[in-house]
Amino acid sequence: MLALDKVVIVCGHLGSPLQCVSKIMAEDQERAFVATTTQKRVRQIIILHVGSTISAVGILGSLICLFIFFRHRLAVPTTHYLLVASSLIDLFYLSLEAIIHHPPFIVGNRNGTYLGSYISLGVLRSGINLGQLLRNWIIVCLGFERYLLVCHPMYFRTQWKLKHIHILMTVVVITCVTIRTPYVLAYIFDIWGPEWCNASEIAIALHTIFDVIFVALIPVPLLAYLSATIVMKSNRLQAWRVKMISKVDTKQSRIKNVNQKAHQAIMVVVICFTLFTVAFIPNGAFRLLKYSGFGTKCKIHFYRQVTASLVFLGDLLNSSMNFFIYMVYWARFRRAMITTLDTYFLCLKRAVVDRERPRHC
């Protein structure tokens, strides 16, 4: 029988290096890069207070988006499917982040902890990593579909069906689960005992390489390329329309304004995604340096922790910003939101009136 209250000694590849935990244990040349009490407190404030606030706002926004999308069909079926999937993944990711960074779950340490706590943290962290990867690639899928709509409209209208989205999402999910497998294996090897520590280190090294490549290095440039292509193609189409029409009437002006709003929304998503993900690149570089042999361990770990805080906030903002972008740039979503609120408050008002109305036998 598995004893979850058993204290296990883990390899430590998933935590801070042992010699970097305190200045007493660090070597003379590395003591300057051991985090002070003040620095640890600042990081704790960022994670617990700022992160919790962003998570709460993002969870509420994701719930509202899901409620609106389930009540109203605001886009073609394929786009609607991706929007629902994006909101679900955001809700999943933010909920796990809110749980794992809540004080009762910050338990144990890198060298010895209860088996039950270690397994719980492993499950939560694996879910967070999977949600992060899925979110980034769903955004890429949205950009790819937008690319088809603008650059290949005939194919999009006649050939692009919901079954293609199902196939695409199946491939994305299977690929993301495969990419995150080394991280899960590292936790399993840790639990199996000290003789598996070398295997755990190899698994973490593979996880780091996959993380840097598939979370930032591929999605960010790919989405930027797709969006830039969309904007240039749309501008050429708009210029062609102006040449074909001698006098732009009110209807054409309205179409032009709608197109500009769509381009603005795309650029906002790209800029925000790139801005909030860019910190992942230096963080990944420091994580890779850990296995290269260059530099001191504590120095690399110190700068990795600094960039990790920025990555943490960027990931939370990436999963929390969609609701606000929809409200600002998507008129149909805004109208659906207002209609839903009006309906809700009207029903609430009727319920209050019915409750206060005197009953006659």
Automatic annotation (TrEMBL):
Q: Where in the cell is it found?
A: Membrane
GO molecular function terms attached to this record: G protein-coupled receptor activity
Cellular component aspect of the GO annotation: membrane
Entry keyword annotation includes Transmembrane helix: yes
Residues in G-protein coupled receptors family 1 profile domain copies:
61-326
PROSITE patterns hit by this protein: G_PROTEIN_RECEP_F1_2
Q: What is this protein called?
A: G_PROTEIN_RECEP_F1_2 domain-containing protein
Q: Which organism is it from?
A: Hydatigena taeniaeformis
